[in-house]
Each structure stands twice: as C-alpha cells, then as structure tokens.
Amino acid sequence: MASFRQNRCVNMIAHLFNAPIGDGEAAVGVGTVGSSEAIMLAGFSFRMSCNYSNDIKLIIYRWDTPIHVDAASGGFIAPFLYPGLEWDFRLQLVKSINVSGHKYGLVYAGIGWVIWRGKEDLSEELILHISYLGANQQPTFTLNSSKGSSQVIAQYYQLIRLGYEGYKNAMENCQENARVLKEGLEKTGKFTIISKDIGVPLVAFSLKDSSRHNEFEVSEILRRFGWIVPAYKMPPDAQHITVLRVVIREDFSRTLAERPVIDIEKVLHELNSLPARVMTKFVGDDEGSCEES
Ligand SMILES: *Cc1c(COP(=O)(O)O)cnc(C)c1O
Fold first, then answer.
1. CB of 202 closer than 6 A to ligand 1?
2. Is pLDDT larger for residue 246 or for residue 47?
3. Residue 75 — pLDDT band, cuts 50, 70, 90?
4. Which CATH code is given to the segment(s) 2-147?
5. Counting atoms of ligand 1 from 1, which one is nearest the CA of 112?
6. TM segments (predicted)?
7. Residue ranges, CATH 3.90.1150.160, the chain
8. Which of 88, 110, 143, 184 has the fewest CB atoms within 10 Å of its CB?
9. CA distance 235 to 232
10. Does the pLDDT of residue 16 top 60, yes or no?
11. What's the mean pLDDT in 201-228?
C-alpha cells in the first residue's frame, strides 16, 4: 500500500512540475530521504543513460545538454506563487527535478522526491526489480533500501488534505511574513536588505555600519534570544559583504514575524554598550597584520 501512496505523490508532484504525462500514463519518480539522495539518483541516471561525459564540449555546443533542476526549496514554492514562471518540465531540456518534502513540502524531516520527465529519461540500469510477497515485479530505485513509509504517508496526507489552494495559502502566508520581517528590519534604519521580494520567502540583510560590530556578533547574541540566524560571507568577488539570513518557515506566524525585530533591536542596543571588537578585526583581517616586513 505504501507504494500506492508513493506513486500517487509522484503523480501529483509531476503534474505540479508540468511533466508531459499522457492520459492513463504514470509519472516517473520516487520518494527519497531528501533532496541530497534525490540529486544523487538523478546524477546516476544521467551518467548511465547517456555517456556524454566523454564529449561534454560537443554537447554544450549543440545546446542540448540535459538539465537536472535542484528545486529543493523552490519546487514547492514556484508552482503556487509563480505559476507562470517556466522553470520546470515546460522547458524541453529539463529531464529531472528534485524537491525536498521537508522544506516547503510541509512534511517533517526525512523526505524528498525526484521526478523524471518520462521513462526514457530514467536509466533502466538504475531500476532494481524486486518481487515483494509474490506480487508483480515492482521497480524500485532508491539508494536507501529500507526506509519507513511514515514520511510518504505524511506527504500524501498533506497533498490530499491541503490541495493546490492549501499549499498556495501556506506559501502566500510565508511571503507575507517575510514582508513583515523585512519592513520591520528596514524601520530600524540599521540594515540594508539584500534579498529580493520574489523567490524563496527569506530575508537577507546586512548592517549599514559594521565598523564597530559586525553581523557575526549580531548572530551570536541573537542565539541567546532563541533565534538561530546564520551570518556568512558572500562568495568570491563579494566577500566583503556579510549577510544575516532568515528563512521563513510555514509555521512562522504573524506575531512570530514581529518578534525577531524586537529582539534584534535589543541585540543592537546591547552591542552598542560593548566596546568595539578591535582584537577580532586585527586577528581576522589580513590588512593591518604585522607580517609584511
Ligand atoms: C536544502 C537543499 C539541499 C539538500 O536538501 P535535503 O532535502 O536536506 O537533502 C540541496 N540543494 C538545495 C538548493 C537546498 O536548498
């Protein structure tokens, strides 16, 4: 029975991603532990079904490189908030897509999905035919052979119970809470907002003035208020920018969206009363070191 529910989930998610599925045809995909396993499966399938690695250049020149989309977070956001955005199987070159059930799929940890465009995009070699209790051979192709079915059941339940409208409401709520948080941060006058309003509901921001205290200190003190807000440097070429990043979960309520701003203001107040981090700057930055002789 678990495989029935898994197939139903695969079908629903494949439709959500606009897979070209004919009448009476079943979608091709499988439940995994998360996006990480899903990405590996898609990668194996790529490598087995076309030996393209020998001549990557040729394929790139021909512009028909098959594409795998890692939609870990966005896969359960874009179809509801940006249905007109063509990122999925509507693009001919997209052959497989993964999505995490435990991010915006609204299921507890331990579930992800990989969906293939069609049967021809899933390598036969990947499919392990098993015979379970004498039933017809069932194709299976996860990397983890033994896995409880509770997550699949939870995903099935959420999809059936909430439906398209339910997921859409949940995502709109996340987006609204991101807006409340963003506006609260702007109102403090202390932060520059880096994130865009469209996309995954998150707010990335940095201090306007980090001469005395930086984002890492804000992050550290925020922990005491129960908020784990990571601070990190941007990738090469933008390393001088450090951002704090808040990802809005679907169980984050409107009142909760207002609280972090209050707590961040307390943190700023506290930092203000502390001496500037002279030592960390000296140790952490290359400039000002005594090594140049
Ligand atoms: C979270 C994430 C992953 C890993 O997903 P899991 O479901 O936790 O394995 C992979 N890629 C991207 C872009 C992610 O955001």
1. no
2. 246
3. very high
4. 3.40.640.10
5. 7
6. none
7. 174-284
8. 143
9. 9
10. yes
11. 95
